[in-house]
Write a structure and sequence with these properties.
Chain lengths: ~290, ~170
């Protein structure tokens, strides 16, 4: 399966890149430029890369560009996707860090909708915000919010998690199930949500299919990038051919176990966890 | 009292304007732009419309860019500023919206930053993690987005917590 991961990297003026970087366990090498794996698109890509490599699949492609928040790189990514997605023809498209720009997300959504063989679309981070705010989330197959982002999805008028209603923020992690109940009434969202947190929830059309709370690894939440690795593993398992529900369930398990194998504390960096993904895959899928 | 709204092309400019106008003594509030002007990651500033000329002058003198000033706008939504915390023993995490910052209680070192979706979040991680919170720059001074705004709120609470615990330790 052809997998395309799209998102920005936090390096100002880093040139547009489309290709398959090499990964040495610590760094990604893109056209001889070395980027250390930290939180963000690079952890997501590395998790996808390792998952697919371990399951002996076709290496994922990365589409990226530098953006430190000025939206210059983000605009390039939206534009490239809109212009080239039909030619690239990925089977799976995972969209990650980007500046949410409603008009461009809407154009991209319409483009995806019109494709004769639309890829499976997983959206996280800024792309998830942009699709939700533009009410085009239904073109995606999966969103991967955390509890705070669930409150944002439930608040139908919010255009960014910074603008959610205070009462929803009060609820969020304390009562994710109430948010799941409320999200049923929101239009313009994908059918499946993989909600990351102390307990992971896999929700299909408003119904909770799975609640995953084992192993309980409370220190994962403060570690930057552990949500990115979950989305990355999920992408890799979908590329391996698992149905979306199963891929989501196993991704949550594998991410928890990779975390547990790292003996994490709030000081742990995500690259320590990423290296445990192959072992966690073996333990969960009993390979 | 009639309110006016300053609209910006970039969140970073709103951060700068907030600083300038507050320092000049204006009663202002950060808020969301009107629905038909929202681009996705935006911030506007409301102010007393009677002070329009003085506000414009303050922005001009300080070189703050803005895209428009709207005369009469009804608005009610301001960005979230509530911060929650999770205590892990020797470390503590502060969260505003989707943004989280974790510090070491003993020495104030920023241990981790997580959550969010705007492209400056990984950049802020690189700029801030490993630094002492009382020496680090507020994310709103180096970030560009609403995620930076939320992280700034969490950062301020973490700094307050650390300063209070230092005061408490030195007095006991």
């Amino acid at each position: 399966m052809k997998t395309l991961v799209v998102g920005t990297v936090p390096v100002e003026k880093f040139p547009y890149y489309l290709g398959t970087p090499s990964f040495d366990g610590k760094n990604l090498v893109l056209d001889q430029k070395i980027l250390p794996v930290g939180m963000g698109t690079l952890s997501l890509y590395s998790a996808t890369y390792l998952t697919i490599a371990h399951l002996k699949g076709e290496s994922p492609t990365l589409m990226t560009v530098g953006d430190i928040g000025k939206a210059d790189g983000s605009r390039i990514l939206y534009q490239k996707l809109i212009e080239e997605i039909e030619e690239l023809k990925p089977n799976i498209l995972t969209l990650h860090y980007v500046m949410p720009i409603i008009t461009l997300a809407r154009t991209l959504g319409l483009k995806l909708q019109k494709m004769s063989s639309k890829p499976i679309v997983v959206a996280d981070a800024g792309f998830m915000y942009a699709f939700k705010a533009s009410k085009m989330g239904h073109v995606c197959n999966i969103f991967t919010p955390d509890a705070g982002e669930m409150a944002f999805l439930v608040d139908k008028d919010a255009v960014h998690p910074a603008y959610i209603e205070r009462h929803l923020f009060e609820i969020d992690s304390a009562n994710v199930e109430l948010l799941i109940e409320k999200v049923k009434n929101v239009e313009g969202l994908p059918k499946m949500l993989v909600i990351k947190g102390a307990i992971d929830y896999i929700v299909l059309e408003g119904k909770t299919l799975f609640k995953i709370d084992y192993p309980m690894v409370p220190y994962l939440e403060p570690i930057g990038g552990t949500g990115d690795t979950l989305t990355g593993i999920l992408t890799g398992l979908i590329a391996h051919g698992l149905p979306l529900e199963k891929a989501a369930f196993y991704a949550c398990k594998i991410n928890r176990i990779a975390g547990q194998l790292s003996n994490p504390t709030p000081r742990t960096r995500v690259n320590e966890i990423i290296l445990n993904i192959p072992k966690a895959i073996d333990l969960v899928l009993k390979i | 009292m009639e309110r006016g709204l300053i609209v910006f092309d970039h969140v970073k400019d709103a951060f700068k304007a907030e600083k300038v106008l507050k320092a000049s003594g204006f009663q202002i509030e950060l808020t969301i732009p009107p629905k038909d002007m929202v681009k996705g990651c935006d911030l506007a500033i409301s102010f007393n419309l009677n002070e329009r000329l003085a506000v414009e002058r303050a922005l001009m003198w300080n070189g703050v860019q803005y895209s428009n000033i709207i005369d009469v706008v009804k608005f009610s939504t301001k960005p979230l500023d509530v911060v929650k915390k999770v205590d892990y023993g020797d470390t503590i995490m502060f969260r505003c919206g989707a943004m989280k910052i974790t510090i070491d209680k003993m020495n104030g070192i920023i241990l981790n930053i997580s959550g969010g979706g705007c492209p400056d979040v990984p950049y802020l991680f690189l700029q801030l993690v490993g630094k002492k919170i009382f020496e680090a720059k507020n994310p709103t001074t180096i970030g560009y987005s609403l995620c930076a705004y939320s992280l700034g709120k969490a950062f301020e609470e973490a700094l307050k917590f650390y300063e209070n615990s230092c005061r408490w330790n030195s007095s006991s």
